[in-house]
Amino acid sequence: MNVLIADKFEEEGIAALREAGCAVTIRTGLKDAALADAVRESECEVLIVRSTKVGKEVLAASSALSLIIRAGSGVDTIDVESATTRGIRVCNCPGMNSVAVAELTIGLMIALDRRIVDETDDLRRGVWNKKEYSKARGLKGRTLGIVGMGRIGYEVARRAAAFEMRLIYSDVIARPDLEAELGIRRVELPDLLREADFVTLHVPGGSDTTHLIGAEQLALMKPTAFLLNCARGGIVDEKALAVAIGRGALAGAALDVYEIEPGAADTEFKDPTPKVPRVYGTHHIGASTEQAQLAVAEEVVRIVTAYMTSGKYLNCVNPPKAAIVL
Amino acid sequence: MRVLIVDEFEEQGVAALRAAGCEVFQLTGLKDAALAAAVRDCRCEVLIVRSTRVSAEVLAASKHLALVVRAGAGYDTIDVAAASRRSVFVANCPGRNAVAVAELTFGLILALDRLIVDGTVDLRAGRWNKKLYSEAMGLKGRTLGVIGTGRIGRAVIRRAQAFEMNVLAWSRSLDAAGVKELCVEPRESIEAVAADCDILTLHLAATDQTRKRVGSTVFEAMKPDSMLINTSRGDLLDYDALRQAVADKRLRVGLDVFEREPKEGVAAFADPIMQTEGVVYGTHHIGASTRQAQAAIAEETVRIVCSFLRNGTVENCVNRRQKTPARFMLLVRHRNRPGVLAHTLGAISDAGVNVEEMENVISEGAEAACARITLNARLGDAVISRIETGHEHVFSVTQSPLID
Prior knowledge:
Radius of gyration of chain A: 21 Å
CATH superfamily of the largest domain in chain B: NAD(P)-binding Rossmann-like Domain
Strand content of chain B: 15-25%
CATH architecture of the largest domain in chain A: 3-Layer(aba) Sandwich
Number of strands of chain A: 13
CATH topology of the largest domain in chain A: Rossmann fold
Structural class of chain B: alpha/beta
Strand content of chain A: 15-25%
Oligomer: heterodimer
CATH architecture of the largest domain in chain B: 3-Layer(aba) Sandwich
CATH superfamily of the largest domain in chain A: NAD(P)-binding Rossmann-like Domain
Strand order of the largest sheet of chain A: 9-8-7-10-11-12-13
Number of strands of chain B: 17
Largest sheet of chain A: 7 strands, parallel
């Protein structure tokens, strides 16, 4: 079976695919027409992508193409509707990166509380300011509000519990099992925003959650609270966020994802939000640890192998003759 | 009791001291002679400090000063020897900042793994580099090496386990029971931990034995590209060797303490470690400085002062002599009346023997008591007999040698 990998992929995964009998072609850094050409030329049945966008043009490039695997969880970079129309199945690897995202979330939380970016920046410039930086509040005893109690939310909660934080969450689905395990309490989003010292978002992207956190929601937050978005750009109305931080409605924010987000290979960053003081940012790397990539690669191999040996689609987001289940 | 607070201190703590009946004075930013003058002028019995230095001059400033409380763990800013010479008690609040230090330790670990500082600096400059920043290792499944398993080390270990890390540990006092309780793998030396871990974090006290203990032998043992965190004391590290290791082994380093650390709150910072080519993140010796830690320390400080106020005992005293020169103990059982102790002490004094420590324990009903007096030399039989028979309210006298 011909497999085309269009993004960086673990060596161990490539080796396992070859071992399973796949002819693997690796072409990274391609976009749109160039990617369509590669799909056509490689006559691949399976296309494996991470952040590379898969649009109509790519989907129409070759009749051989029958399975797209997103080596990650979100499929908003793939035109699933067009894929469905053409009978191309899309599978993902949900949950494999939840630990990596949770680790980044806790890291950003402490970095904001202790102002690690500004502190290092100052020391590098020869400035010592113990007086200013001694004003952190600490995590123990503070309230963490988790918006979206899926796999990532759960991993965040487990770690925050070890930091002796008070935990609350909001979700359309109640999780009494987790409430018992972690002593976490379900509240409505407005109450969560009012009570939390840290608000962290772990809901899927898409039209339902666009600007879930806007001016109105930010106004509910404590002036000492921080907002974290390691989920998807667009969930937070960043213009409103900049304004709210500017007038002291909240203390700051950390973002791993942006409304104006460059592609993986781009070098220029145009989103103005990280220029706001007390906004920390990373480069959409929530899922990007060796640990997560290994876990994702293992899952991709499992999906390809199942398809090869039995024609089954594991983790399919557009299964044949069924409604799209996201 | 008059209490002088010369550093920032939690409002709730001040309120609690006042509620306990203390007269509280707050003067911040004083040093040396000015501090000595303040101690003299307010005639305080208790002095509460955080980072302010307490010199021999300050300790000698007023005869009233009886107790110095360091609202924090380390007391190397206090001239304890000078305090001991004047019988000024020094007490500290150990372990109250363990959580704050453990939180910072994890903040630095995660910041270094995900390059949060460089990532933010790049975004602020309009640079996007997802490729570079996607190279993190992740914590789950990695091995954390913890040096020192006191309160801070333990707080770090608990958090590491929630991150599903393996934990190796070494400390001078780690025994089989500790290993079992902490669920860690012990190693026989700092170097042995360093050799097997991905992240090494130091939580040792600063002593003469630990000065520059972590140097080239430890760095040579460490894996290339591994991580070193020091949130304990600048003294522990050989910073020259560390700079070399950052260059040779691409160690990622997170530091809250430095070799050349300014004493002031705001100052120029010239330690070359932060100019080293490589990934070195730093904070401003703020490990213990969170509101949570300050509240916990203030609570402990209030407990120490209140105990001293109510019954004269000093909790967490760091300069009480553990082994006194006492060699004999006298137990005097007596009726609880005036003059018994004066009679007893008079006889001891006439014999030229020195009292080291004493205590008088009253029995239920307050009719009788037992005085326990320790002595630097043995009393002769004649003196014992004089104490026992020379006062109508003395029941019995027993002298026995103190065993080490």
